[in-house]
Amino acid sequence: MPTYQTCDGVRRRDFLKVGVMGGIGLNLASYLSMAQAGEVDGGGKAKAGIFINLNGGPTHLDTFDPKPEAPSEYRGEFKAIPTNVPGIQLSEHLPKLAQQMDKFVVLRGVSHTLAAHRLGTEYVNTGTKPLASLEYPTYGSVVSKEMKSAEDLPPFVAIPRSQHSAGYLGVKYAPLATNATPRAGQAFSVRGISLSGGLTIDTVERRHRLLSQLDQTFAGFESDDQLLDGLDQFSHQAHAIITSKRARDAFDVSKEDPSFAKAFEADDFSMSCLLAIRLIESGVRFVTITNGGWDTHTDAFARLKDNLLPKLDNGVASLLGGLHTRGLLDSTGVFLTGEFGRTPKVNARGGRDHYPRCMTMLMAGGGVRGGQVIGESDEKATLPKDGEGIKPDDVAASFFYNLGIDHTKEYHTNSGRPITIVRNGSVIRKLFS
Length: 433
Known about the structure:
With 433 residues, this protein is of the alpha/beta class. It has a single domain (12-185, 266-432), classed as Alkaline Phosphatase, subunit A. Helices cover 30% and strands 13% of the residues. It contains twelve helices and 14 strands. It has helices at 28-34, 72-75, 95-98, 117-126, 139-146, 201-217, 226-242, 245-251, 258-261, 268-282, 300-325, 392-402, and strands at residues 48-54, 80-82, 89-91, 104-110, 156-159, 176-177, 286-291, 332-338, 341-342, 354-355, 359-364, 372-374, 410-412, 418-420. Strands 6-5-7-1-8-11-4-12 form an eight-stranded mixed beta sheet, sandwiched between helices. Strands 2-3 form a two-stranded antiparallel sheet. A hairpin with a 6-residue loop joins strand 2 and strand 3 (89-91). The chain is globular.
């Protein structure tokens, strides 16, 4: 998946803070030396989650909140089409999603005030408005802490990497980043999981036995050293993943049943969605997919209809349909968003600019009742119709609720400061009724 640069000069990878303090996406060795499974099972209907981050800020009017009756300078060039749920319309360039409308909910009139890419991204990736004094954890990091995961699988995977860190939870809850996207029909290698350079499982086993013998020899000298005890634990987990056929197979989209894989186009986003299904089906608790290029200040309509929207349409529709076919949609919460919407009025360059005052988000799976639109924007999609609208905090609280996690649960920073998972926000009950 390519690296996109937003208009403020920030590239996706620049969101990462280099070094140990960042912890947004780690290779297997770094990840396992600092990561461990959580100790608390989630109690909600969804037992796993997928978060799709549309980096750059997708336009709401040209996707999930069309305004066919608005003046042309607002409604843009695209028409609205009906969905398989009477009374709900989407953009004409989302025909596959229109036929899957019964499987997801569109949240319209979502509103906040952060129009900068980095701040908006941090907000929607955590559900809490950014603070200068504290960095909140992304969704997958909380899930990694709260839900148990199999020893031979990473609990949290980012394709190709995450936009945000584990925050105050620390790098041990950061995702395993693939740092690449799979290609159709090709074996997908994730550094540290797929063996390379002539290394075989037998070689790994021999080295592991040797390390075990050395550990026993020097155990008496290290019995009180918690760091070495931790390294020993992570060594065993690394060995479990590297030697696990289940882990290697989960990442290898080339092994997917062709009759199932044919619904997914060969582009990087659709292949990432296919990989997400394989990971969830194998037992990975949380997957983040990042898809960039949505910062459409100029020539927006050509870029949307020729590239961005067809890929989004196929990828998300195939993801929802695939989860449903595999019997996973009822146990997998799905959340799709960008960091903000775009200006309702088309600018002089044929594009739309940053606009957090009104945007859309999608939710599906688990206990979410599909086929709904919740919230509403005004006649030109400039503001929520009810004035206040839906806050990202509310959507985050609802996503955690769907995963059986109490968003008001209190954690503590290293200094002992008490922090709730989501600082503000209430569960949107209509999502589940």
